[in-house]
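Re: that chain you flagged

S.,

Sorry for the slow reply, it's been a week of failed gels. I finally had a moment to sit down with the sequence you sent. For the record, here it is as I used it:
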Amino acid sequence: MNARRIEAVDRLQVVMYLAKTHSHFPERELRTCEAYAKAFNWGIDLIVVDDETTRAEPERRPMLRAALQRLQDRQAGAILVPSKATISPIDGEFNDFAKRVEKASAFIQVATAWRCA
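Prediction finished late last night. Pasting the structure tokens below so you have them in one place:
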């Protein structure tokens, strides 16, 4: 079997989920998540920028549901966020959403600042 083909199959694909605040594109958070994904050789399947994160709980956000659907459809294996609060600052809401992600055999990963040596 071709080694390049095996590498492509094994590479984790992630959905990057970002929060748009006060009409500003989350440039710093995008770069942090991109660097994190690159450090682990993860592919970025989809980038979602949601402007409803402060107005609605997780289950009422269409953009977050679309990210979850990518996991359920096996297009990606994780949701990558710049902080846990991007999903919800309320632990119970975050945990409920995390359970739905885990039912899709996936996970939520919080990107931390990544420094290149």
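What I noticed first: The radius of gyration is 14 Å.

Talk soon,
D.
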